User: Which sequence fits this backbone?
């Protein structure tokens, strides 16, 4: 039986990479029935809203979505679609697995970690105001509830994946109330998982340690802003946003998406690299229980990178979306 999954092609290179991913998944034998929904510029043109209610309703109905990148129109009064999606569906955990891949020239070959970022509050709570002209205040919200569920999510993931240690990243020395609370909660949750290691580290020290030796980290968990920065830093350790998958998970819904943007500079030229979205789709397959197909897709990605045939220009090749898609299918 095919599982219904909402497909949001997005805009820019979104439709090109989603078409490629659908082709590879079909060839891999994924049992999915795509339910197409709109977001981004096409949705603004059709419905006057980059994230229409119908799209949200479809995700609420089918629970799982694969999303292509969407442009955030600048200066037109639209809030980021991604921030809205996370808030509306309470997708509280951003999950980004980062592991070394073959054929990509980077300084490290033994990275295997997961960055888990609290997605709903912190400095991205959207609460900013002008106190007096020339003075602006942005509120950094930390609640016990959100802190507890994200740290628990990190430990549960570590347990599920047989990982050894959760590292909690903070700045409680200069933010004693907000990060102090987060740290206290993290320690309490860690006590419930004595069989998983727990470590605390300041965010600045963590950045330095990641640059020196990323192989010593396993599961990293942190608040929203630190997570935004650290997850891109970690993606850079293994080859950048073109190869790293992402997922936004809540207790009811899950949206899987590549972490790169809509790449307007190459949109419509057939040059986009679909690997980040394809690997996000592999996470989706695992999420809906199609683990064998997920493993097949992941191994096709590795073989394709290893052989270096048909790769797009961002990966150092001379190919395009069509050539890399054909190569991925050949390597399934
Ligand atoms: P971007 O990630 O779209 O592009 C940065 C650079 O990476 C560009 O040179 C682009 O050509 C290249 N690139 C990105 N993805 C690629 C791929 N799959 N294959 C080959 N090359 C790729 O970041 P930028 O330019 O800052 O953002 C463009 C738009 O995307 C903005 O409106 C931004 O708000 C939006 N955006 C959307 C995201 C999402 O929907 N998840 C995430 C990040 C940005």
Assistant:
């Amino acid at each position: 039986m095919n599982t219904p999954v909402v497909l949001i092609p997005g805009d820019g290179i979104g439709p090109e990479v989603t078409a490629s991913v659908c082709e590879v998944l079909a060839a891999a034998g994924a049992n999915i029935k795509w339910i197409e929904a709109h977001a981004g510029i096409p949705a603004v043109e059709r419905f006057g809203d980059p994230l229409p209610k119908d799209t949200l309703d479809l995700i609420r109905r089918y629970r799982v979505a694969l999303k292509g990148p969407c442009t955030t129109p600048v200066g037109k009064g639209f809030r980021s679609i991604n921030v809205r999606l996370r808030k509306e569906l309470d997708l509280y955990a951003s999950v980004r697995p980062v592991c070394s891949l073959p054929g990509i020239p980077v300084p490290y070959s033994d990275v295997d970690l997961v960055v888990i970022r609290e997605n709903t509050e912190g400095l991205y709570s959207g609460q900013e105001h002008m106190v007096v002209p020339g003075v602006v205040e942005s509120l950094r919200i930390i609640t016990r509830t959100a802190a507890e569920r994200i740290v628990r999510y990190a430990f549960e993931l570590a347990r599920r994946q047989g990982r050894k240690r959760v590292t909690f990243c903070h700045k409680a020395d200069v933010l004693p109330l907000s990060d102090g609370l987060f740290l206290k909660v993290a320690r309490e949750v860690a006590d419930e998982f004595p069989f998983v290691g727990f470590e605390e580290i300041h965010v600045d020290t963590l950045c330095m340690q990641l640059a020196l030796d990323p192989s010593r980290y396993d599961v990293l968990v942190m608040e929203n802003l630190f997570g935004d920065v650290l997850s891109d830093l970690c993606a850079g350790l293994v080859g950048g946003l073109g190869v790293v998958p992402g997922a936004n998970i809540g207790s009811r819904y899950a949206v899987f998406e590549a972490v790169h943007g809509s790449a307007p500079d190459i949109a419509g030229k057939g040059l986009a690299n679909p690997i980040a979205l394809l690997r996000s789709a592999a996470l989706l397959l695992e999420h809906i229980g199609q683990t064998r197909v997920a493993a097949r897709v992941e191994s096709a990605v590795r073989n394709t990178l290893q052989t270096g045939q048909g790769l797009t220009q961002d990966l150092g090749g001379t190919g395009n979306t069509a050539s890399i898609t054909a190569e991925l299918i050949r390597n399934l």
